[in-house]
């Protein structure tokens, strides 16, 4: 079993490789070595307190940063952000705007393409079928998990097992939406054997499909379920506890990170935090929780 340090090294290696590949595609074949700086003159001592500019409304887009440092993140789990400002949630500025009427057809043809994918030979040879994703092509909100499990592999649909039942409760009982109103997908479209964590190469192979799904649907919000989804889309090796409780941007789309429903099944105490994440999302989306007896009971567990 790999350690967190090994996981982080693998994630960082993948981020560097993807960045180099992107530079290559852009025609940049060489990266000049940094010129050594002359010895810095001695600097006056820093004042005891430094004026800090007002913090940005959102965490900066992760795209330009390979391994973002997090100077503003306290060591302890951050509290949830104050009520978000409306300017944070302007229309996402994605590169391409696909007409709403074209999205279903584009997703269907892409699903057919993915169903034949063998980029990960081992996964392609062990899966029953690919699990592309499902939901509204015009969804305001997209949930993104890790990979299909056994139930999903059998049915061809995302989040249909016990974790799926909990996610469905979070969407319906917690947020007052239906599954048909959102879009649900995973980082991997093929099941890893024994439900193991996806390998970095597998994530790198499959991520372009998800990126195309997001570009077609253009959701207003993303909710990343678990560390694999957060690491892949936000290109960060930070642990989940340091990604929760604040807003991120994925290609200008306001993005929240929360626990994967499978983790909530193993750790029911975390449901309170997951509920707080959903409430942050709902406030931003202008949604009110449906009337019910126990506002914190997001699922049967
Ligand atoms: S996980 Fe994705 S990239 Fe790998 S074989 Fe399946 S569909 Fe293809």
Fold and architecture overview:
The chain is α/β, with parallel strands linked by helices and 301 residues long. It has a domain of 182 residues: Uracil-DNA glycosylase-like domain (Uracil-DNA Glycosylase, subunit E, 3-Layer(aba) Sandwich), CATH 3.40.470.10. 38% of the residues lie in helices and 8% in strands. It has 10 helices and 6 strands. The radius of gyration is 20 Å and the shape is globular. The structure holds iron/sulfur cluster. Iron/sulfur cluster binds next to helix 3 and helix 6.
Q: Detail the poorly predicted runs.
A: 31-88, 295-301
Sequence of strands across the biggest β-sheet: 1-3-2-4-6-5
- Secondary-structure-derived class: alpha/beta
Distance between the termini: 26 Å
Rg, nearest Å: 20 Å
Kindly identify the CATH topology of the domain at 106-287.
Uracil-DNA Glycosylase, subunit E
Strand content: 5-15%
């Amino acid at each position: 079993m790999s350690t967190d340090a090994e996981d982080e090294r693998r994630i960082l290696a993948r981020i560097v490789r993807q960045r180099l590949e992107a530079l290559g595609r852009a025609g940049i074949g060489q990266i000049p070595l940094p010129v050594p700086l002359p010895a810095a003159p001695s600097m006056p001592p820093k004042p005891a307190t430094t004026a800090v500019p007002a913090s940005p409304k959102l965490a900066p887009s992760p795209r330009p940063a390979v391994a973002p440092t997090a100077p503003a993140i306290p060591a302890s789990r951050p509290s949830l952000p104050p009520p978000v400002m409306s300017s944070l949630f302007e229309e996402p500025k994605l590169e391409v705007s696909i007409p709403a009427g074209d999205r279903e057809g584009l997703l269907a043809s892409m699903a057919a393409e993915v169903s034949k994918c063998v980029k990960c030979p081992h996964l392609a040879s062990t899966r029953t079928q690919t699990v592309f994703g499902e939901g509204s092509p015009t969804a305001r909100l997209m949930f993104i998990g890790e990979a299909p499990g056994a139930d999903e592999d059998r049915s061809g649909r995302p989040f249909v097992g016990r974790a799926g039942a909990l996610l469905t409760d979070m969407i319906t009982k917690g947020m007052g939406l239906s599954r048909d109103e959102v879009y649900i997908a995973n980082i991997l479209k093929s099941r890893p054997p024994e439900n193991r964590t996806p390998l970095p190469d597998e994530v790198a192979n499959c991520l372009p499909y998800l990126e195309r799904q997001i570009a077609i649907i253009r959701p207003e919000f993303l909710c990343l379920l678990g560390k694999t989804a957060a690491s892949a889309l936000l290109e960060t090796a930070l642990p989940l506890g340091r990604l929760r409780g604040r807003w991120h941007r994925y290609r200008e789309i306001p993005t929240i990170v929360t626990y994967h429903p499978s983790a909530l099944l193993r750790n029911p105490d975390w449901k309170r935090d997951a509920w707080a994440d959903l409430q942050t999302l709902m406030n931003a989306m202008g949604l009110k929780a449906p009337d019910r007896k126990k506002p914190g009971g997001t699922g049967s567990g």
